[in-house]
Structure formats: C-alpha cells, structure tokens
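Sanity check. The docking grid for fructose -6-phosphate depends on where the pocket ends up, so I'm generating a full predicted complex first rather than guessing from homology. Inputs follow.
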Amino acid sequence: MKVLILNDPEAAIERAGDIVSGAVRARPRTVLGLATGGTMLPLYDDLVARHDAGLLSFAGATTFNLDEYVGLAPDHPCSYHRYMRQAFFDRVDLDRARTHLPRGDVADPQGEAEDYERRITEAGGIDLQILGIGRNGHIGFNEPTASLGSRTRIKTLTDDTRRANQRYFSSFEETPRYAITIGVATILDARATLLLATGEAKAEAVARMVEGPLSAACPASALQLHPNATIVLDAGAASSLT
Ligand code: F6R
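Predicted complex below; grid placement will be based on this.
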C-alpha cells in the first residue's frame, strides 16, 4: 500500500487527478473503475478541466462504475447513472457505449449483478479502480462483514450508510436499502487501485484501512492485500494515522 498524504483537499485531488490522467495517457484504451459520492465530485471536475484544456482524452477508455441502488431507474435524480452523466460522462469525450453501471431497476437484480461481473471480465478486467471510503470502512457498497472473496451482488446497506446518503433523498425512509455493488474480490482483481479520502470524518476509517487488522469488519482493509494500491489523503483524512 502506498499512502500519499497531501496538505489540503485541493492538493489531494490534484494528485489523484495526476494518477488517473497518467494511467489514461499511458494506455488510452484503459478500463477505468469509477466511484460516486461527494469525495469524487472535485476529482471529476479536475479530470474535466484537464480534458477541456486538451491535455486528456477519454475517447478510447471503457468505464465500469462500482455500484447502483436497487430500484432506481437510470433517469431517477438520485441514481448513480444520473450522477455519472452530470459529473463526468456528459462533460468529456467518453464513448457512452463503453460506459457501464449496473441497472438497479431490473426484474432480476441478482442476474444483473452476475452479468455485470461477466462484462468486466469480457472487457479484460479493470486497469485502475478508483475508490472512496465510507465512514464505516466500506468500499463500493461492500459494507462491514462483506466477504473479502465477494463478487458483484446485492448488498443490504447499513443504517449508517443510509443516513450518510440520506442528504440526496427526501427522507431516510426513501433512501434505498439495497444496492448492486461489485465485490471486494472484484476490486482486488483490478491491476491498480486508487483510493481518495478527504476530511477528518474519514480519519478513523482510513486508520482502520491502513493500520488495522485485515478484516471483513473494515472491507477497505482488503486493500492491504493489493500489490498496487495507492491511497491519497489530505491531512484531515490522515489525522488518525500513527
Ligand atoms: C459509491 C461508493 C462509496 C463512496 C463512499 C464515500 O460509488 O463507491 O463507497 O465512495 O460511500 O462517499 P462520500 O465520498 O460521499 O463520503
């Protein structure tokens, strides 16, 4: 695990942007694993700025997002499909036919999950998996107790995660209970991973990921097993590291 600690969130985002753009430039047909959430928004802005400045093209890239809420159609205002269109897909030269998210509104979500895992394999696997971290140590929607050998499947969201995501919905009750998420083992299969965390609210989860025991109680700790995992932190997110 390579842990990079930057002074402030802006510097952390720029460093993460350097890593993503370096990977895309080195391999224009790269397969990127993408994440959503508040932490990722400034990273997408950074990548869009590089694209607009003519420094970066995603024209050859393929993308697979980590997760989607079960029950939400792609055009639902709180779906991750919508988030990705607004934050990234509609702002860069990606070929939309090569962008992938699991569909949350299908009759057979488990079948969709298995099919999604197959599509990742058929695309040759993920070259660089971008990740955020939940305050409870989740990556993707692999909540605490998720098997470290898990593959894409349906996961029940913890109340803690639903409370954190409630800000996007009109109430806690309306916040979805289930998501389709790629698994911990699917994440570990990526040739490289890049986890970005900013702010003190993430400090405890970051310390458990980096310094804690390898445990399903903190799914992000599985990254300790990855031979090419980079963690980019600002000072706040790093503040509980010893
Ligand atoms: C969503 C995802 C989640 C988030 C995590 C942090 O695709 O992968 O694991 O990265 O919940 O979310 P924020 O950045 O909103 O704190």
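Relevant for the grid: The chain has a mean pLDDT of 97.
Also worth noting: Helices lie at 9-26, 40-52, 80-87, 109-122, 159-165, 184-189, 203-211.
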